[in-house]
Design goal:
The structure is a single chain. By secondary structure, the chain is of the alpha/beta class. The protein has one domain: Rossmann fold, CATH 3.40.50.1820. Helices cover 39% and strands 16% of the residues. It contains ten helices and ten strands. The strands form two sheets. The protein has a seven-stranded mixed sheet with strand order 2-4-3-5-6-9-10, sandwiched between helices. α1 crosses α10 and α4 runs parallel beside α8. The chain starts with a strand and ends with a helix.
Length: 298
C-alpha cells in the first residue's frame, strides 16, 4: 500500500448509479447490512442475495454517506455524517421490521461492522442480532504498512489533506481470479479519476478519512458492553487488514448472552466476496433463521 500525494479541490457531487441493494421476502428477518469504508453495496451482494434466496429474509444494503461520489467529496466525509447515514437506514429497517412483526438483524463488513455494533449498542431493544464481518477496530493485518501507525500523528498536521493510500494486492482477496479483475479496474483509476468508484469502490484511501474515523472506532470500543443482542463475528485468520485481535476484543467485551465466532482459514479481509463466501452466507442464514424461529415461538 503506497502513499500518493496530491491536492484534490472541492468536487461536484454526482448522482449515484444506484441507492444500494433492496431485496424483499415475506417471512424471516429484516436484515440491514452496511458496507465498509470506501466500499460499495456490491461487496455484500453475494450474501444479500443468498440470505433472501436460501433463508427467505428481506435484506437492505444502503450506500453510505458520500460513497460513490468523487474522491474529493468522499475525503471530506465526517464520522458523524457516516453514522447518520447508517442510522437513517436503520430507522427505515426498524420501521419495516415492526410493520411486518419480524426481528431486525444489523450487520456490516469492516467499518460497516463497527457501525452495526454502534447501532446495536444504541438500540438494544430493537436489534435481535448483530453480524460483524471482518470488524475493523485495529488495523493490524499482515499487509498493513508500518507507516499506518503514524496516522494519529498525521491527524495534527496539514499532511493528512494531501496523503492517500493507494490500494495494492491482495486487495483483501485470496481469490486470485477476482483479485486480478480488481487490479485491472484499479489500474485505470487515479486521484482525480474515480468515476467507477460507485460500482467498484475506490483505489485510494484518503488519510484524512482514516483520521476522521478514529473517534468513531473509539466510541465503538467504549460502547461494546452495551451490546446485548445475539452476536455473530466472522473473522479470517489471515486477514490482510484486520487480524483476529479484532474479533477477540469484541467477543470478550460485549454483554451478549449468545456469541458465535466463525474463523475462516482460506480468506482475507473481504470475506463476503472471497473463497469462503458461501460458508459466510450459509452461517448468516442459520444465524438469522434461528432468530426468526425464536421470535415466532416467543
Amino acid at each position: 500500500m503506497a502513499i500518493e500525494w496530491g491536492w484534490i479541490g472541492r468536487a461536484n457531487r454526482v448522482e449515484p448509479g444506484d441507492r444500494g441493494i433492496t431485496l424483499s421476502a415475506k417471512n424471516g428477518c429484516r436484515v440491514l447490512l452496511l458496507h465498509g469504508l470506501t466500499g460499495t453495496p456490491t461487496e455484500l451482494g453475494y450474501v444479500a442475495h443468498y440470505l433472501r434466496r436460501r433463508g427467505g429474509h428481506s435484506v437492505r444494503v444502503p450506500r453510505l454517506a458520500n460513497h460513490g461520489q468523487p474522491l474529493g467529496v468522499l475525503a471530506r466525509t465526517t464520522w458523524r455524517e457516516l453514522y447518520a447515514s447508517a442510522r437513517l437506514a436503520f430507522d427505515e429497517a426498524r420501521r419495516r421490521a415492526r410493520q411486518a412483526g419480524v426481528p431486525l438483524v444489523v450487520g456490516g463488513l469492516s467499518l460497516g461492522a463497527v457501525l452495526a455494533l454502534l447501532l446495536a449498542a444504541e438500540y438494544p431493544d430493537d436489534v435481535a442480532g448483530v453480524a460483524c464481518l471482518s470488524p475493523t477496530l485495529f488495523y493490524d493485518g499482515w499487509n498493513v504498512p508500518w507507516y499506518h501507525r503514524l496516522i494519529p500523528l498525521a491527524n495534527y498536521t496539514p499532511l493528512k489533506y494531501f496523503a492517500y493510500f493507494r490500494e495494492s494486492a491482495p486487495y483483501g482477496l485470496k481469490d486470485e481470479e477476482l483479485r486480478g479483475r480488481i487490479e485491472q479496474q484499479y489500474r485505470r483509476m487515479s486521484l482525480r479519476e474515480s468515476d467507477d468508484a460507485g460500482a467498484l469502490g475506490y483505489a485510494h484511501f484518503p488519510v484524512r478519512l482514516f483520521c476522521e474515523m478514529r473517534p468513531l472506532i473509539a466510541r465503538c470500543k467504549r460502547l461494546l458492553p452495551a451490546v446485548k443482542s445475539a452476536l455473530l463475528v466472522v473473522q479470517a485468520e489471515h486477514d490482510d487488514m484486520t487480524g483476529p485481535r479484532n474479533s477477540e476484543f469484541i467477543h470478550e467485551r460485549v454483554s451478549s448472552a449468545r456469541r458465535e465466532l466463525l474463523l475462516l482459514r482460506n480468506s482475507y479481509h473481504l470475506v463476503t466476496a472471497d473463497l469462503e463466501r458461501a460458508a459466510v452466507a450459509e452461517r448468516l442464514v442459520r444465524f438469522c433463521g434461528s432468530l426468526a424461529s425464536e421470535h415466532s415461538h416467543a
